[in-house]
Amino acid sequence: METNELEEEEFGFSRNYFLAKEVGPSGKKSAHKLSDIDLVDEQELRAAASNIEPKHEKEIKALMNSYKSSYPIWVFELRCGFGLLMYGFGSKKALIEDFASTALTDYTVVVINGYLQSINLKQVLITLCEVLWEQLKVQQRTPSVKEKQPFNTRSVDDLLTFLDGPHTEGNDCFVCVIIHNIDGPGLRDSDNQQYLARIAACSHIRMVASIDHVNAPLLWDKKMVHTQFNWCWYHVPTFAPYKVEGIFHPLILAHGGTTQTVKTASIVLQSLTPNAQSVFKVIAEHQLAHPDEEGKNQFILYPRMPINNLYTTCRERFLVSSQVTLNSHLTEFKDHELVKMRRHSDGQDCLHIPLAIEAIEKLVLEISQ
Length: 369
Fold this sequence. Notes:
alpha/beta; 5-stranded parallel β-sheet
């Protein structure tokens, strides 16, 4: 009897659903647009988030203290040539730093903040070599004369050879590299992961790293995991907020504001050549001269700057000598998300800058100075 009543209830729900769809509103489209949403300013949202009171502090503190019993095991595994990979919900920055400050006091530690947007791995290699050199001098083990050459003038392969050299006997002479968020935006590409794997495989390097992205293990192949990084995986959820790591990532529910957007784009443009900046200025001036009907403070969605017109203008101003040169500039712009390309109804590829009119005006002023 109960089964029949349940089936009738489910049938009635399904029937009402389709009846509601039939008598529902017509297919008239809404006039609302995504650009009409008034997003909170990022500074205000971050300030509000920082005022949220933490919960379960006692339980989290007890959990963090429970990991301290594993410190001797972790040190032993490092001495045996393994790397440590920490994963689990919550920021592991405080945990790893506590481990380094209490259990790795006999070793030199170099910290890499992978949550930063860009990291110079060549400079990291130079630092590691200089630290190892000082460590060898303290232990009165003098490397060869060739290795006294300044490290900043040597190639990456030479630096890796020095870190992997047979300078000492035993496993206690090593530099410990701590990488917060080895899956961060500044280290996520394949080339950087290959370099990190080669660094981890050096005989005088031990690596302790953390991951937070669910797909982070896909960054490595079998050789990198088992031979180069040689990970020992540890599930260490901390349930700690990502306060430091989150500063360098934009918030989904907020816009950065015109000032922050201009500042970011300006930093990128300053790293480009003067000709590249001038090409960007041509696109910006065209976009300002042909504002879209969306309005003064809206994003320009349908600019009309065909690539052919851009090439002609840049050629007349002696900014580029060929289409290949222009394409190289456009590739830089697209890689840094300064411009976007879309195909117009007439079949031409057109460029636009995905910034508000006000932001573009400020950028043009900064470029002109």
